[in-house]
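Data card: per-record layout.
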Amino acid sequence: MKKIFRITAILLVFSIILSCLTVGAVAKEETTPVTEKVTETTGVSDYSGYISKYGYGLSEKDVEANLSATDGNIADLNGKKAILLKGENYAVYEVNIPKDAAYNINVFFSNVKESVEEYHIALSIDGKLVFDACEDITFYALWEDDGDIRELPNGDQIAPSQKQKEGISSAKLADKNGLVLEPYQFMLSKGKHEIKVVCLENDFYLSDIILTVPETTSSYAEVSKDYGKYEKYDGAQIVIEGEDSLWRNAASLSPKSDRASADVAPHSPKNSVINHIGGEVWSAPGSTIAWEFNAPKDGLYKIGFSFNQSYVTNGETYRWLKIDGKTPFAEATKIGFGYSGSWQFKEFGEKGKEPYMVYLTKGPHEISMSATLADTSELLNRLGVVEDLGNLYLDILMITGESPDANRDYELHKQVPNFVEILEKANKELKALNDSIGEELVVNGEIEGALNNMIRIIDEMTNNLYEAHLQVSSFSSAQQTLSAWLYDMRQMPLGIDQIIIAAPDSEFDTPKANFWESLVFGFKRFVYAYLRDYTDDKVSSGDGRKTIKIWVNWGRDQVKILSNLIYGDFMAKNDIDVVIEQVNATLVQGVISGNSPDLYLHLSRSQPVNLAMRGVLYDLKNFDDFDEVIAKNFHKGSE
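The structure for this 639-residue chain is written out next.
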């Protein structure tokens, strides 16, 4: 009997072990990322390692890829064949490379949903993710104005609604974080290759993939050597208003209003007028705005910018300028815009010298500006050591806790793996970086102080290993300060009022006001501040249509945003006018006074209960169309 019992127990143990292995295998299969299901890595972890591994030169001509396989649906976009990629759909393209070379990859796409701003794909070449960022590459939809600037009856202007750019757009695959300044270069050997695109997030139509020649730029000194054969333009200046952009790659980059300055055109001391674009929302690396203009004749032109950079104190933000999709010379890759509390004008060129000139042919052109990290990208790449210091702090925290005992010897250099090695490596890299700032690198802010503080703390920890725990609090604070700098330095905000293209030998006619103009403007603003009625915001066509009165207990900025939404969306779809009133009264007071609103927004949660207890609420289910309205305008269960 005992023998049978032992055999049964042994069989039971084996069955449990086998079931665990099976469950583990199934769980592992279910959690495998989509990129690992369809690809494998090359063993190269980052982009810089991938580039350094190959010695390929730049390609000499573009190569078009041909579709060979897909599990997406084939669609027709105005006579152009495209693949609808959604979920985890993929498309495989074959390409024949004439010789070993580096290429950019340019994808041609169109939107499926008009509200989507960005698309995410995984990209593999010959079944492999060639570097880690290929697991998730992002490109962006292009946006344009849906109509013209609109004016309200009170004289205020509101920006037009935004819509996705119609037709097929293109994007070169690039680093979404902006740390790699130029589009990714993909190293391809001579022969046939397969390029596989997997949709990760947001559906889109993919029409083509073209491998393009990476752009090379020469210095202005080299480019200008050929300017002797061109004539200088000598006509009237061309003014491009910032708010009249052709397209943007973010819906948030819509035209804006600045009422506080006479240095921007147009301006009004009374009303809010649309007069610039950008600002704080135009700060992410890679965010781009493009404009179009017409050159009157072939020749050399100079460029100037009316701008506002009141965001990065005592620093500069940078833009990459292109004309017709090409960089005119190397200096255009990082145009710096310095800090000031007011609107400024900048002539594109080296300070104290002749302005840079660009050659333009007669006819239409496109000029674009993209936010770029410039020298800051190298600084951010080299500050990757901050993450290592953060991980080290977590290891220390597990031993010492948040408040180490000063009288205890923790021996961190023995308790924490690679404690000394991590600190010494970080110290060496931080000191080298600190020496580069101001000489090789130009960056914003007082990061040198943060670096010096971190270096000092690391020195004290490595020089007194048995007392390193006494620096834990300072170590954490310094590491968090550097981490904050990592985020702040990525922001490159800029507002653009005008881009002026003018004759090289003429003076710019800028929108900047003189002393007397600014004084008069300020006085008028002061007077209108008392004359204007701010208690209501009438969004009305004035043609006797039905009117809804709304009460809100908000600030002016929120009311302005609500007015813009109502005018651009609700009134465009419904034959109803709206009056918004700013009040500090209760709904009961409005009813008693006979001046109650049709709609009260931001009512406190206690008010409906208060009114219901007094039996003064009307049951909406008594309306015949209740079910229809609820089903059309609200989520299921809202009733």
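Known properties of this structure: The first strand starts at residue 40 and ends at 41. The first helix runs from residue 2 to 30.

See the next section for split statistics.
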